[in-house]
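Newbie here. two chains, one complex. Structure please?
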Amino acid sequence: MAPRALNSIWTRVKRERSRIGLFGLYLFAFATWIPVVAAFKNCIGELVWITGASMYPFLNAEKDRTARRDVVVNYKYNAQYGLKRGMIVTFWNPYNPELMTVKRIVGIPGDVVRTRNPYPVSTVKVPPGHIWVEGDGGERESQDSNTYGPIAAGLVIGKVTHILWPFHRSGKVRWWEYAEKIRDRG
Amino acid sequence: MPFLGHPLRLLLATLKGLALAHVGLTYGFSVGAGWGPSMLPTFMTTQEWFVTDRRCRRGRGVRVGDCVAYGIPVETGEEGVKRVIGLPGDYVLLNSPGLAGEYEDEEEGGGGTAAGGMIQVPRGHCYIVGDNLPWSRDSRDFGPLPLGLIKGKVVAKVSFDSWNPLYWFSKVENGLRHPEAALARPG
């Protein structure tokens, strides 16, 4: 019974093969690469187009001159570990779990951070496993930890390591140069 | 090696297979071991595995009463399993649902009253609690959990207590019952 059913399937496949032919074979060969690309984008990294002015003037610096958005590299390998002050990270927005957000790390666990306007208290100690993130754009442009509080490092998707577009600002993100400026605030 | 083909071709096929497995485990279903007493009536302390539906990642389609696997916010990289008792906008008791015997006199509260106060779960968050209330670290300690930390919904538990693989899996039900159905139960 079972071999007979298999046989009918096989004859059908052979009959279809003449119709699918070489194009179908190429299509299948293309499809086998889709999981490879998806796994790479999920584990290693991907390109991200920056929306909004919350990281102005570091990202989207020409926001009032062009509608073209900055392109950055979002490096995802071990992204939730080794987070330092000054790094730019992408994370799932705590208020909207489907929205990827990009901000700069201002405080790591144990830091005492001086908060900005919407936050109810003036200083806050970052709890273990959490980070304090703020946009470079300031309290007018950026909705950040001053609105939703310290975020869990588990929400982090990736670190922004390189700017690719626009060309004159492209290159490695020198986040360590910002770590000193942050310390002045606290 | 004429049987397996050219080594490079074999390497590529292995790579593609691993990538396909990764995509299936990330966006489909994944299986993992769990440990701990925090969900005791529902899950054993040890020797039990969970099947997690990763399509419910970041709280997609999660309802009150579902068991979810989540990244523990205070310990990056660690995962836990708890039950969702509040979604954005819901009002939850901070000490809910009250431990029997913790409060001796009725006036102080306990037993499901608002002893520790009541909050509204903020948008994009949920409130999770373990089934074994005295032995669970959950939202009562670290507050509402961002939905982005939810890895998936636990749909089945696996216990290898039989030789027959068909008996390994048992479905995990949503713990929420309609109030009329709960009242209609004897006792």
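Moderator note: The mean pLDDT of chain A is 88. DSSP finds four helices and ten strands in chain A. Thread marked as resolved.
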